[in-house]
Amino acid sequence: MMKVTKCLMISLLMAFVNAASLAHTIEIQRIHPSNWWVGMKNPNVQLLVYGKNISKAGVSVSYPGVRILKTHKVENPNYLFVDLGISKTAKAGTLSLVFTNGDTKTTQKYVLGTKRHIPVTVNSSDFVYLLMPDRFANGDESNDQFADMLDTKADKSVPYFRHGGDFQGIINHLDYLQELGVTTLWNTPVIENNTGLKKELHGNLQAAYHGYHFSDHYKIDRRLGGNAGYKQLSAALHQRGMKLIQDAVYNHVSEDHWMFVDPPAKDWFNRWPSYTGSTHKEQAIADPNGSESDRKYLTDGWFTPFLPDVNQRNPFFATYLIQHALWCTEEFGLDGWRIDTYKYNDMPFMNRCNQALMDEYPNLLIFGETWVTNPASLSYFVRNNVKFPLQCNQPGTCDFPSFQAINDGLRESFGWDTGINRVYQALSQDFLYHDPTKMVTFLENHDTDRFFSVIGEDFNKYKLGVAWLLTTRGIPHFYYGTEVLMKNVKNPTDAEVRKDFMGGWKSDKENKFTAAGRTARENEAFEFVKKLANYRKNTPALHSGKLMQFVPQNGFYVYFRYNAQKTIMVVMNTNAEAATLETARFAERMAGFTAAKNVLTDESLPSLTTLRIPAMTAWVLELK
């Protein structure tokens, strides 16, 4: 009996020892940022460490110029935040982070590189091309689908599924983009979207092929080519003198994001007693008579039921997002950021994030998507000349007022405040913006109906719109396929305006990347864009000169781009028939000029007194 009892006691003791040992076991699954650099203006970085029993661990480091400043525990024991101080004397290399819990130690290697990236400024001399990598070209079929991801489907025949486009497909067609006159590439988000199919409002199960459902900030989606493939794309662009813009999403993540599945704290996301969507009403933000509750519904309401709204007022999450933006800029050599759903973010956080990026990378372009067509309301969300209680520091923004104006204006007959007057009126409110040259202009994007369909597939109106986009102030961006007349409306889903670029897949029967694969009309459209985009690129007066516009009259809209060296006159006849324009009232800008060259047709105009302009036609005149 005593022998049995003694054996039992030994067994219990061993079990206790094993349990104690397990309690001290450290299992680190993630450290974010995954690496960092010496030479950053901010000498400190906050590491998010995730793993079992990690909150109980002590942390030490022995590396010249690097020290642990502080550790922070949060509600969830699977997280520990570690503040690292990196002195100016620290050198690049690999340090060892030692985590200790009781007698258990584990060591994690952490790489410090040297900050080297200097962004190439994206400005009004550029022509930005927006594309959706999954829908542009499939250059590597081996990464189309992975069995260990939540969405294993890749089917080009289904509009709502992934189609297999990737970075290699883009690289394969950089010659095409450069021929067109493109200087800068903007992809829809490339961060990992390891999410299942989601039931959208239209009822179909849809993949996150567009990229806006983040699941892990420090992974580039491997179906696009992963981190390595993205670096290859960045390098290929920069070798050609081209630039790269990344699409940021700070407002929300996917419900499949690992931090939503196991959040650090209850306030990591904005939670409500029951599902509460955003009102999408930006007026509440700047309204001097508005209510705090309406502001909260706009910013803290969820974008959709499967996109948890990030609480950017949580200091740890705010730092996490800011450091991620800095990390991407350095890691992938970015030249600019476009910020999704800008108006839904917490504005003090956005100011802090923008400033951190601009402090480290003064040449960086930052512009947001604020879908607001009223210039006064839009001006709140960008650097402005208005005395708002909070001053946003964002340098640029997507110019939704002029987008709406050109789309509406080309569909309407000319009237007191209709037709092309809408464009004039939108630009006449540039006094609101601190720097209108940083407004990003466009005819369409991945969330709108295709421009060619909006204007009833009228080719003359198409050329009017393109001519305006490439001659007005600001930074123009094109949506992929506009140059070959891609069309459609968002019915029944957004997938209808996100069709594959024909020729990007081996199975495609047509190839729009080549002149031989395009129709005569598509080639005419391509050549029209190409000619004007390349002329613009090489003409500082057109892309960076001053703008002077005149009140539209009799269906004509006339404006000038000019500097000390050159003057460009743009004449848009929006009438349904040819009409004569008397130029005397433009003497303010035409004095001293007697002739011109039409840069679109290469024709010379020996006299400028009267101009006979064909119906629905734009002339771009280099004055002599």
From TrEMBL:
Occurrences of domain Glycosyl hydrolase family 13 catalytic (ranges): 130-536
Enzyme Commission identifier(s): 3.2.1.54
SMART domains: Aamy
UniProt keyword terms in alphabetical order: Glycosidase, Hydrolase, Signal
Any GO molecular function: cyclomaltodextrinase activity
Gene3D superfamilies: Glycosidases, Golgi alpha-mannosidase II, Immunoglobulins
UniProt KW Transmembrane helix keyword: no
Protein name (database record): Cyclomaltodextrinase
Biological source species: Runella slithyformis (strain ATCC 29530 / DSM 19594 / LMG 11500 / NCIMB 11436 / LSU 4)
